[in-house]
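Lecture 7 notes: from sequence to structure.
We start with the chain below.
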Amino acid sequence: MKHINKLFTALGITLLTACAQKPSENVQVSPLMQNEDKITDLISRMTLEEKVNMLHGKHMFSSAGVERLGIADVKYADGPFGIREEMEPHSWNSIGLTTDSATFFPTGSALAATWSEDMAYQYGMGMAKEARLRGKDMILGPAINIQRLPTGGRTYEYLSEDPILSAALAVQYTLGAQDNGAAVCLKHYALNNQENDRGSIDVKVSPRAMREIYLPPFEAAVKEADAYGVMAAYNKVEGYWCSENGMLLNEILRDEWGFHGMVISDWGGVHNTVNAAMNGMDVEMPGDRYFGQALLDSVKAGVVPESVIDSKVRNILRVRLAVKAVPEEEANKMMTSQPEQQQIAYNVASKSIVLLKNQNELLPIQTDKYKKIAVIGDNAVREQALGGVGAGVKTLYEVTPLEGLLKQLSGTDAQVEWAQGYRAFSKHERETRVSPYTKADPKLMSEAVQLAKNSDLVIFVAGDNREVETEGSDRKAITLPMGQDELLKALAAANPNIVTVLVTGGPLDLRVVDQASPAILVSWFNGTEGGNALADVLLGKISPSGKLPFTFPIRLEDSPAYSLKVYPQDERQKQDDIFVNLVDEKETDQKSGPTADYAEGIFVGYRWYDTKHVPVQYPFGHGLSYTTFNYSDLQVKADNEKLYVELNLSNTGKRSGEEVVQIYVSRPDSKIERPLKELKGFQRVALQADESKSVKIEIPLEKLRHWDEAANDWKLEPGAVEVQAGGSSQDIKLNQTIDIK
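Predicted structure tokens for the same chain:
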């Protein structure tokens, strides 16, 4: 399903002002802008104290309304891949409800691996429906920062290293949620691309890289999907905290993109009353240190105009009136997780699994040939809904890989036996800063090797867990933790028939895995139904169809920020960034941190590897199938608005399957520094065996523009455009060159 964006036209944007001019009848008005007269009346009836009281947290996950005027509180649902359980008002502790177990949806990188706008829409829809059952108004998601670092602690939450893929999915997640009654809160705006020092890092980025790589997902979700909320990130950009960054919050978000919703801080991300108030922040969460009494005093002292307060209240009320409040007595009356949402979780999981390698067609598993199956690895039995720092899901259930396989093989002659193989990295070890990159446990390894020797087939469930990949800190490495490479070598010596399943949210160093394992799958942190989806792929009930949303480098040192030695930041460059509250000079914030130099510029992810000719283990967009596809008859046309790409795709194998057709663009004669190629369009296509389809993809010419730093604007360079179609960034099947003017 391709969902039509419910947005105003360019003409509509000029009409939708804060003065509430009535648009012409043929202009579709944003739901945020349909109550301006009512909002003006409500603001006129509020006291200053009531207005300020709306601008900060009331409880850990709510901000106040005005009860006497019938304005309900705004209630927030954490986080982006499942609705967090009900918490005590002023702590992170659960209140112990029996109805707040939610569906654990596959995490962000898994959703991105589907390369499916339909799945993103359904994902947002599922999240919204469960949020509404709980009485929540705004989902704190989607998380859509670009995956700049292979080690990034929140890579599993984020979508992709590519702005086009991230933007397309962000738009559909937003539409899916808001079409079904819940506001989204896009996060983390902006350039929150590392977790180490996230609360003090100062990002130095070129305007071109910011515009072409890091902002497009946010811009698309605002312009194309009318996102109701945006969360300001913890970090600084060009010397200013994101919570008080006038360039990001006022100039770009509101003035340029036409955002009419509300901006909230990340939890504890406000640092100064006046700076935040004057530069676009609407709601401080979760407390009132800066936007409580200090803000009230600032207004009374004449430092912050009351009109600024009114504007913030207007932004909040736009969202509050666009999202129907759920009465307290109607919330939490039935179990949060429902079958419809569980099915969505399965659909996403099943389409996200990436087949990296399949030598000798070891997969799908032939149960008549491999009757004794060894399942080895702690991740085969480990649930991933919780763990680490940050958002987790008190899930109703989670099917592990071992459970899924046992269920699917029940009633067959296949015998399945499990051995742990390696220890799990634990919460205690993370909290005490023990490294997960240790040697194998001799006893566990010996038991696993013995089982492998006595089996026909080994399924090695490897990878990270949610204590290794966590909010708040980046990984130190991308090698497999807890001695898994050492274990795998021993397993391969005992039994060469090994299928390695990687449970991960980000890239891994697979040099050992690639040598030791003839078949490799990536199954992600794949949610409530992850084990069932994995079993269906392993046994061939469905063909794998996921594609990598980021590159797997050969070595961490090959990736751009590490290659240029701008990450990690070893020398902390103290900045003169003391922001003084103009009302109370004693209230200062002196948090100084290192500078994050985005020296790679626009050459992020595959743009770097392809342009610099750096070999990779598995490229961006890669993913095999149990069937084969043929690309033919590429035709490219252009007019003044779009490129029109058409090709024929055929399933030439014996199984049904789905392929993601990827369209890259190269500018061979460009006078501007550019990557070798850039993704500009894609489409997931389902085909039965021997079926062919005509695939049509339209690419607006505005997607071919570059950011001209001298002009401070977008420019379209005329000339030759080479359009490339294929199955990954390094698997180009067809190409054709056309001129644009």
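Points to note: The two ends are 33 Å apart (CA to CA). Residues 1-25, 571-590 have pLDDT under 50 and may be disordered.
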